[in-house]
Amino acid sequence: MNTEFAIQLDWQSDRRTPIRWVVSHVLRSKLVILIMLIGAFSNAALAAVIPLQAGKAIDAIMKSPPDLGIVGQAAIWIVVSQLVRSVVQFGRNFGNEIIGQRLERDTRAELYTSLIGKSMTFHDMQSTGDVMARATNDVREMNLMLNPGVNLVVGSAMFLFMPLLFAPGIHPQLLFVPALFSLAYFAALRRFLQQLKPITEAVRRQFGGMNAILAETIEGIETVKGAAQEMQEIARFEEGAAEYRNAFVRQGDVEARFIPLLLMGLAQGLGLLHALALQRAGEIAVGGVVSFMGLLFLYGFPVFTSLFAYSQISSGLASARRILELIKAETDLDENRSGHAAPMRGAIQFEGVTFKYRSDDAPTLEDVWFEVKPGQTLAIVGQTGSGKSSIVKLLNRIYDANAGRVRIDGIDVRDWNLQSLRTQISIIEQDLFLFSRTIAENIAFGAPGATREQIEHAAREAQAHDFIAAFADGYDTVVGERGVTLSGGQRQRIAIARAFLTDPRILILDDSTSAIDSATEDQIQRAIERASRDRTTILITHRLSQIRWADVILVMRQGRVAAIGAHEDLMRASEAYRKIFARYE
Fold this sequence. Notes:
The protein is an alpha/beta fold. The protein has helices at residues 18-26, 30-61, 68-117, 120-124, 128-170, 176-219, 221-226, 230-256, 260-280, 286-297, 300-328, 388-395, 418-423, 439-443, 452-461, 465-469, 488-502, 518-532, 544-548, 567-573, 575-584, and strands spanning 348-355, 365-372, 377-382, 403-408, 411-412, 425-428, 506-510, 536-540, 552-557, 560-565. The chain has a six-stranded mixed β-sheet with strand order 6-7-8-3-9-10, with helices on both faces. The chain has a four-stranded antiparallel β-sheet with strand order 2-1-4-5, covered by helices on one side.
């Protein structure tokens, strides 16, 4: 399976089918499974002791004179058996809880590492809300599938066998009704599960859709409020919630037609008639009738719990399918662990590069050729949508070109070790992302081993130290998600400090000073100039002060290279550049 980063876990799951996948996780706890099975069988067998001993006690009472010794022995057997039963029940339930929690833990780890390893192409195609629903609610459903789901199914299955095991000991003919019920029960259960499978899948799918609507609205809450669209978004969410409710109601309709409830009533009625007929014929005593009916009443546990337990299992398997679908999804990129890994010089070549984000889209870049020598500064200019940002995303393989080659130091980026490639390229994007962590942790994100002195030095170089020191907690100030507690200029300076700290061989600034005032920009400009020495720098900007000092200027127009050269040359020879320059002025 292709992934950007194949993170190795301590185990290897079987991902061929959802059931195999779940079983491969569960089988990692073989000893606990054995305890659970022993506990489930012992629980059912000890439950059967009650009707069997009760029948013996009734026969002993009906003797003339009554045999109180047998009655006492039966009472002792019942008390002792139920004390032991409570112990084995605890072992069974505790074992199931352990397996369920381990399954949830390991599933979360496997899914999280898989998602981290996927490419941006994969993530662009996914709804964040639906992914979060799978990573939280669906994973939880898998836990509930085991406990109480499988716990009740295994436990109740043992109860189904008790009449088959003990009824022949009362009279061989009494095996007929339990055998007939068992066949009818499993046939009805098979049909019930077939009907339930698509409905539980729809329930999980609708829940993911509803969650996607919620996540999208919360993420874009500023836009919603700015356009006064609160009522429309509420109506949209209510529509998604109604679809989820309707799917859940359809599941309830199927569960309401659970045939085994009817079959159990028929079995108990037929069993009573059969037992009474044998008693009237002198084949069995009254105590035998009582014992047999007590065994048949054991069916009450599997029948009533099956209605809930099998629905829980069906829902858990539907969740497993949804999670495994994410894990198994292949991406277009791989980490190429055996690829080229060496210090970069910073030479960049684009050779006839064509790229589109999706196969059915029009090309974002088409037949792009240019070259940047080590240590040079390249400025990329052009109108919005001309492909400027797409160029830099091909450099560190956020995406791969559909045609042509992107080379660094003469080596195709596909032939580089992905980790080595990306750790030597630092991008400060227009759409900045800061984590909900301390300022120091955000600056050191690309260099987690950095000391506080190194972090502060990078902040000073990015002209960020003064405003950071003004906070009450300084570098230990926790910023909100995406850095919402900071101004745009503050966020950009922290991002620039992060780039300085990693000391990249290729530094890319994608309109990174757009939210900074002129005075601060002059200071940052000097810092960028210092940081650009002896490293290749790419600037995507409309700031004339930055465009002028670039060694090479690339003019993009509708995904193609319209012109390339130095500022003076382009002003003389390129009408497209003069128009862009005139607009910026």
